[in-house]
Amino acid sequence: MRNLVDRVPPAVWQMVRYLLVGGSAFVIDFGSLALLKSGFGVPAWLSAAIAFALSTLYSFLLQRKFTFSADLRMGNSAIRYGILLAVNMALTSVIVEGFDRFFGLYLLGKIVSTALTTIWNFPIMKYWVYPRSATETALASREMPSDKA
Predict the structure, then answer these.
(1) N or C, fewer C-beta in 10 Å, the chain?
(2) CB of 80 closer than 8 Å to CB of 86
């Protein structure tokens, strides 16, 4: 069994960690959205924005260390993540509000917006928000970088 685990490429394990953190962040997001909208009567667009902000703060911290082991300074990662968050939050709010107004299904809107953002967030996080140096990337994949000088 150990030999089988060792043969799984590091990129696959990274994707698994990304999905685990993202899945737990979705539970926080979805639960907060339902509580704010259905429990407290907050409008769907505002509930979606607040819930998304809470879950993404959680996700930022875990993805940074657990998934991507970023070597970019925290402030630089936070700025880049903030830009990604703003785009995702706006899109999520529009989708959730649209599903609420047209179908009365704001939670389905949340599922749709999460699926869309999950698809593009992984490569954006991997290569822009949490980039790694060439040496660190090579070590993580168990290869040595080639000297090209």
Answers:
(1) C
(2) no
Return the ∠ at Cα 34 (arms to 80 and 106), rounded to 5°: 80
Measured distance CA(89)–CA(83) in Å, rounded: 10
| Average pLDDT, integer, range 58-62 | 91
Domain locations along the chain: 2-140
Q: Which pairs with CB-CB distance under 8 Å and at least 24 residues apart come from 141-144? A: 141/9, 141/10, 141/11, 142/10
pLDDT digits (tens, 9 = 90+) for 93-128: 999 999 999 999 999 998 999 899 988 999 999 999
CA–CA dist 77, 85 (Å, integer): 12
3-state DSSP of the chain: CHHHHHCCCHHHHHHHHHHHHHHHHHHHHHHHHHHHHHHHCCCHHHHHHHHHHHHHHHHHHHHHHHHCCCCCCHHHHHHHHHHHHHHHHHHHHHHHHHHHHHHCCHHHHHHHHHHHHHHHHHHHHHHHHCCCCHHHHHHHCCCCCCCCC
Question: Which pLDDT score, from 0 to 100, does residue 149 have?
Answer: 44
